[in-house]
Write a structure and sequence with these properties.
The structure holds two protein chains of two kinds. Chain A is an alpha/beta fold. Chain A has eleven helices and eight strands. Chain A has an eight-stranded parallel sheet. In chain A, strand 2, helix 2 and strand 3 form a beta-alpha-beta unit. Chain A is globular and about 50 Å long. Chain B has one domain: Aldolase class I (TIM Barrel), CATH 3.20.20. In chain B, helix 4 runs parallel beside helix 5. The longest helix of chain B has 21 residues. Chain B is globular and about 50 Å long. The mean pLDDT of chain B is 97. The chains are: A alpha/beta, B alpha/beta.
Chain lengths: 304, 304
């Protein structure tokens, strides 16, 4: 089976107007920017897209724009995780109804379920739709609630529509445990890095990334992926170091710093909703200086 | 400037007699086994050698014995960690004056000092060491003190012989952040993989690997390191997965399983000292069955 989710995939931020209301027009421009600059898939709204700061109605409205605006040029997956699993199921079924290509879901928020509880969570979500599902593992943000080899094995045996995993443990031991278990059962299963940690993961079976910096530096993201896939270790390492500097810059107050950086790149997407801060003018000036020192302003597209 | 690149570093266990004394006759055989198996350096006594279960007097006698037997054939790196800064510094001074080529030290055991005192601990040990000094970061075993890039940069400023970091975090963000930032200030700063998860560590810049499991599968570890050293990481993946399966098996059975597995491979070194337990007869049988099922171990030599 051909892998649908690989390469440098983009998870756009969520544009907001100055009064913090949804800015769907700018969202359309942003989606188009990502597709034109090489995104192999679109996935929205990851945490970078302030998923948990949007109402369910807003999420549905943005999702409809995403599917309609991308219009089949690349696959679109909708992140359906919400505090309440009931909302997640509702969002998943809505995604299918509007023609999304897949849903993506993280392990449950807040609670500390058993491994069997996490298994049942994914089975319920996966069986609530007929379209493919992508699982999302992020133990550092969810207090150690995470995937292991046994869980992914059970899920792959149970769910034929589980096609990919966004793997964001960023840990060699954990990555190898998941990848060797998953790819043994299903060699065409896509393991995708959360953020562009590609140099350490591509040799172990990773086939792409959900980009953090794609709104700022799509060229750099593509260069890193290509270097990794071509086995150009030294080049990949240097590009990885540069992207890690960008990640350090943006993970501070993520994603408000990223939105601040997009102002510098000529692609303003508005403020960030509370409780996250909005990048101040001073923060934007600091980001501008960093981007200049990294050579981003000279090598990446400016404007839409 | 530090010109030592330890490379393929074996970390022998400490053999004990039935009455739990250091078994020097066995240690001699073990050192010879590691040297003939391709060790390019010996690091001792690391945690796998039960360093914290050896008295200070035993550690020095053990070190003297290793130096005498290795007799300059490969560099010996002395692990000197202790709760007390003064004890670790004294051990470092002893080791460098008796022929060690480098010193290895963790953050203090038990205590969780403030950041400036963690720096002071390392700086004092480095000053006593004079020779290349490596910080050993093992957060899985020592959860109290977290190291970070700022501390590494402070050590670069305070300690001209600070040569690198031995990493057991297996954390990509941590490794990339450290090496990319510190090498900008000190280009010869080294990252060493503290265990055999070398594909990802190598891809982000590690040039050396410490290998406790060379005591079980020396051929596999040697072949694997050679491929990683050549930066042929795609080629290394299959071996990385085999190594991971062995690592997980030992992890499942606990600390005593390394020595137990050595016994199964015909290289008995006794059991760990208290407070660690030896494997139960049932666990030993289970370990034996699992090891026999690992095809890749059939290529490994049995006995000394």
């Amino acid at each position: 089976m051909k892998q649908m989710f690989k390469g440098v995939m983009q998870s756009p931020v969520t544009p907001l107007k100055d009064d913090f209301s949804p800015d769907l027009k700018t969202f359309e421009k942003l989606l188009d920017f990502h597709v034109r600059t090489g995104a192999t898939a679109i996935s929205w709204p990851h945490h970078k897209g302030e998923s948990l700061n949007l109402t369910i109605a807003e999420r549905k409205a943005f999702a409809e724009v995403a599917v309609k605006s991308v219009a089949g040029r690349v696959p679109v997956s909708i992140h359906v995780s919400a505090l309440s699993v009931e909302d997640s199921v509702d969002l998943a079924q809505h995604a299918q109804q509007i023609g999304a290509d897949a849903i993506i879901a993280i392990t449950p928020y807040f609670w500390s379920p058993s491994m069997d509880g996490i298994f049942k969570h994914y089975v319920r979500l996966g069986q609530s739709v007929d379209i493919p599902m992508i699982a999302y593992n992020s133990p550092s943000y969810l207090e150690g609630i995470e995937f292991n080899g046994e869980l992914i094995t059970r899920l792959l045996e149970k769910l034929p529509n589980l096609v990919a995993l966004k793997e964001a443990s960023f840990n060699s031991e954990k990555f190898v445990e998941i990848s060797r278990a998953a790819l043994k059962i299903r060699p065409d299963f896509s393991i995708v890095a959360g953020v562009e940690f590609l140099a350490p993961s591509v040799p172990l079976g990773c086939v792409g990334s959900y980009s953090s910096a794609g709104g700022i530096s799509p060229n750099l993201c593509k260069q890193l992926f290509d270097a990794c896939m071509n086995g150009e270790s030294e080049k990949a390492r240097q590009l990885q170091f540069k992207l890690a500097q960008l990640w350090d810059l943006f993970r501070d107050q993520y994603p408000s710093s990223l939105k601040g950086g997009m102002v510098i790149m000529g692609r303003p997407v508005g403020p960030t909703r509370a409780p996250l801060p909005t990048a101040t003018k001073e923060r934007q000036a600091f980001i501008a200086k960093q981007l200049e020192e990294l050579g981003i302003l000279d090598t990446e597209p400016h404007g839409w | 400037m530090n010109t030592l690149i330890p490379g393929f570093v074996h970390t022998p266990v400490t053999p004990f007699t039935a009455d739990l004394k250091v078994d020097y006759a066995c240690l001699e055989k073990l050192l010879e086994f590691h040297l003939k198996s391709g060790a390019e350096a010996i690091a001792t006594p690391m945690h796998v050698a039960e360093s914290v279960s050896l008295s200070d007097v035993e550690q020095r006698a053990h070190f003297d014995f290793v130096m005498k037997h290795v007799n300059g054939r490969v560099p010996v790196l002395a692990h000197v960690s202790d709760s007390a800064t003064g004890v670790a510094a004294s051990r470092a001074d002893y080791a460098q004056s008796h022929g060690a080529k480098a010193i290895i030290c963790t953050s203090p055991y038990y205590w969780t000092p403030p950041a400036h005192m963690v720096h002071e601990h390392f700086a004092q040990v480095a000053k006593a060491a004079k020779i290349p000094f490596y910080v050993f970061y093992t957060p899985g075993e020592m959860t109290g003190t977290k190291l970070n890039t700022d501390l590494m940069l402070q050590l670069v400023n305070s300690s001209s012989n600070f040569a690198g970091l031995i990493d057991l975090s297996m954390d990509w963000q941590f490794m990339i952040n450290i090496i990319s930032n510190v090498q900008r200030i000190r280009p010869d700063f080294q990252l060493l993989s503290g265990n055999e998860y070398m594909v990802s560590a190598g891809a982000v810049g590690a040039k050396s690997m410490l290998t406790p499991m060379a005591a079980i599968a020396p051929k596999l570890m040697k072949d694997f390191f050679a491929v990683c050293r050549a930066e042929k990481y795609f080629e290394a993946r299959k071996m990385q997965e085999e190594i991971a399966s062995l690592y997980q098996l030992l992890k499942y059975h606990g600390f005593a399983s390394l020595k137990a597995a050595m016994g199964i491979m015909g290289r008995p070194c006794g059991v760990p000292r208290p407070p660690l337990d030896a494997l139960s007869p049932e666990a030993l049988k289970s370990l034996q069955t699992s090891l026999h099922a690992m095809d890749f171990l059939s290529h490994e030599a049995k006995g000394w």
